# Entry
Amino acid sequence: MPSRKQKRREAKSKRHEYEFVYLDSEGNELDEPPDELVASSRAKASSNGSRAAPAKQPAQQARGRREPQPPSWQRAAKRALVLGAVVFALFALTNKKAGYTGALPLALIYTVLFVPFTYFVDRFAYNRYQARKEHGPSAPQRQPKKR
# Structure
């Protein structure tokens, strides 16, 4: 039994009349679809009447991910400085008793420890990207077991 939302959607699709307008290269309206469109739609249809699958784009574009940059200590240090400022502000505001002097050593420790951590995470991500790029698309993921 369809839900209310499904019923509303179906009723809406029946209420509206859709009209296809075909334009030529000069912008003039055509009464019939152009020959190229008719030929391409016939070529896409398969023998059993189903539509042809759209052409697959490279996996990198389909996911919308950026290519990771090679790891660098300079980039890791910049990120650590930003984190250090945030940690310092957080510790200074939350610990009224120790104030700024108590927050500064903790923020420095977190900042210093964050530099190598960030570098190694960047290196791991870059190495994984390089390995995936060399071996091509990965094997299909396993389906979870049904219980």
The chain has a mean pLDDT of 79. Residues 68-134 form one domain.
